[in-house]
Amino acid sequence: MLQRLSILSKHFRLFITSSSFMNLDSAPPARNQRLVFAPDRYQYTKDSLDLSQIDPESPFKTFHTWFGHAKESGEVTSPDAVVLSTAELPSGRVSSRYVLLKQLDSKGFVIFSNFETSKKGRNLATNPRASLTFWWEPLQRQVRVEGIAVRLTAEESQEYYDTRPRGSRIGAWASPQSSTIENRDVLDQRVKDVEAEFDGQEKIPVPPFWGGLRIVPEEVEFWQGRNNRLHDRLVYRRTVPLESVEQASTEGPGEFTIERLAP
Q: Which segments of 15-58 does DSSP mark as H helices, in order?
């Protein structure tokens, strides 16, 4: 990704309303100037996508295959990095952040986080709908997931929590995620306090405000870049829409239809 950004940066120009250009490294844009981000010749030519290349029933199986391609390519640094987007109600204000996919099962996509103080947790408390976006630039692929976020049980969260390094387990207890703190010293002291509390204790309980979130999908889109921006897009849509967290919690893998979308 950094290499790609470096390439794009060579093509960035500062557009002035008089149609002249100047380098971005020069003076900041004035009121009558705007930035145009326009790479000249980059095309998506690495692959194509049709129905014969995806599982006819399960978006989870297709995702597992694509994730394997990204992981085994040796070119995607963090194939598990994904943008999680949530929206607060009633304002409708949207927020996004990168998280890491930690589990994939027959029901959905699982990440772990603080539920109580994080912005994502506050958003989901008012609106359980969320989306995920994976971008694997070297493969010219992305995957979009839209669905409902359901908390894992404490037992399920503990199982994953136990696999984390001790420092990360301590950190989950110590950090009031997304809350304002006076300075770094405050956080460091909280870490010391938690370390003292669990001193000599290898088995640390998962915090009650921390754990897994499973995004149970209503739709999953697989996007393959194509030449001239005429991309291939195949989307799985759940035949029975999810209406609530309760329904998403008890829903099985579900049945999906597959449609092709125009780019």
A: none
Burial 195-213 (b: 16+ CB within 10 A, else e): eeeeeeeeebebbebbbbb
- Are 143 and 63 in contact by the 8 Å Cβ rule? The answer is yes
| Predicted pLDDT at 24 | 47
Q: Quick one: CA dihedral 70, 71, 75, 76, positive or negative?
A: positive
Q: Max Cα separation, the chain?
A: 69
Share of the chain above pLDDT 70, in %: 86
Over 60: is that where the pLDDT of 13 sits? no
Residue indicated by tokens 């997931």: 145
pTM for the predicted model, two decimal places? 0.83
What pLDDT does 26 receive?
55
Are the C-beta atoms of 160 and 103 separated by less than 8 Å?
yes
Catalytic residue check, 229 = yes
**Cα(first)–Cα(last) distance of the chain, in Å?**
23
Pairwise CA distance, residues 115 & 122, whole Å: 7
- Which candidate in 31, 41, 184, 229 is catalytic? 229
Cβ atoms of residues 195 and 170 within 8 Å: yes
Q: Which two tokens stand for residue 134?
A: 């994976």
